[in-house]
Amino acid sequence: MAVGRDQLLEMYRRMSRIRQFEETTKELLLKGELYGAFHTSSGQEASIVGSCMALRNDDYMVGTHRSHGHPIGKGATLDRLLAELMGRETGVNQGKGGSMHLSDFSVGSLGETSIVGSGLPVAAGAALGSKLQGRDRVTLCFFGDGASNQGTFHESLNLAAIWDLPVIYVCENNGYGEMTAARDALAVEDVSCRAASYGIPGRTVDGQDVLAVFEAVAEAVTRARNGAGPSLVETKTYRFENHAIGIPIEHYRTTDEVDDWRANRDPLVLFRAFLHGEGIAETDLDAVDRAVADELLTALEFARQSPFPPAEAAFTHVFTNPIAIAR
């Protein structure tokens, strides 16, 4: 599939936005400006952006607990996203969603969840809604190798196949389910081969190659939009950071392994080399990185100056009657 210069640069821009956003949030967390466990997606940018760039703006997307990058890949603005992570009222969910439970309907991001595998049936439901409404909107669902062993994976793919739902399931196989190697938890080498159980297409691609991901997901999107039903795409990728920032447990993988992926399989470095070969100057890519850095500085200032939600906000968006707050 031919990809033009502007689209290539947009892919790089979104990948840079994810990387710089994750590096910024890591720094803020370690300095004490953010709290809790942050699950970053540095190293998985090609998988995210290649998938999201195959979608329309009005298409739906469902994320995972490792989902700062997913709405960015779909085109979300950084200011309200960062404000959400900092618990501010101007966040995409008024500061109530935080790192693992945010959504951004402005870009079709239906939400993410800390419950592994729980987004799979949500995506099936969203796709069913689009089909019943007679819309040609598709739903893309991200999940990890660990979630592929959950019952929700099999139930969702089975229903999606029976009902020919317009949904694309993208397994971001980063080799580890939390701290368990996929090779020790999967009876098959490729998650994509499980698609055969449901009579749908399954394909495994290099998750560090944004164009390979884009091609595979775009094909699945076209199939779904034309009424041919769901597909399963597996991207073999890698997370550079630990399972979560602030959880210093690294005994489950070696330093040499992480260093090798960083040195030889960094998706941004690989894509920069490809773009240079396509005649795009390093200076143009450097300019993109600088523009993203400026965007992040503006977003950080916006988030820091935004107020925290008032105490009364604890009783909005919930299924109960408010009670009086003791003063």
Task: Give an overview of the whole structure.
Helix 8 links the parallel strand 7 and strand 8. The chain is α/β, with parallel strands linked by helices. The strands form two sheets. It has a six-stranded parallel beta sheet, with helices on both faces. Strands 5-6 form a two-stranded antiparallel sheet. The radius of gyration is 20 Å and the shape is globular. Helices cover 43% and strands 10% of the residues. It is built from eleven helices and eight strands. The longest helix is centred in the N-terminal third of the chain and has 27 residues. The protein has one domain: 3-Layer(aba) Sandwich (Rossmann fold).
Provide a short characterization of the protein structure:
The chain is α/β, with parallel strands linked by helices and 327 residues long.
Give a topology summary.
Blueprint: H1 5-31, H2 45-52, E1 60-62, H3 69-74, H4 78-85, E2 109-111, H5 119-132, E3 139-144, H6 151-162, E4 167-173, E5 176-177, E6 180-181, H7 182-185, E7 202-206, H8 210-225, E8 231-236, H9 255-264, H10 267-277, H11 282-305
Parallel strand pairs: 1-2, 1-3, 3-4, 4-8, 7-8
Antiparallel strand pairs: 5-6
Helix pairs in contact: 1-2, 1-10, 1-11, 2-8, 4-11, 5-6
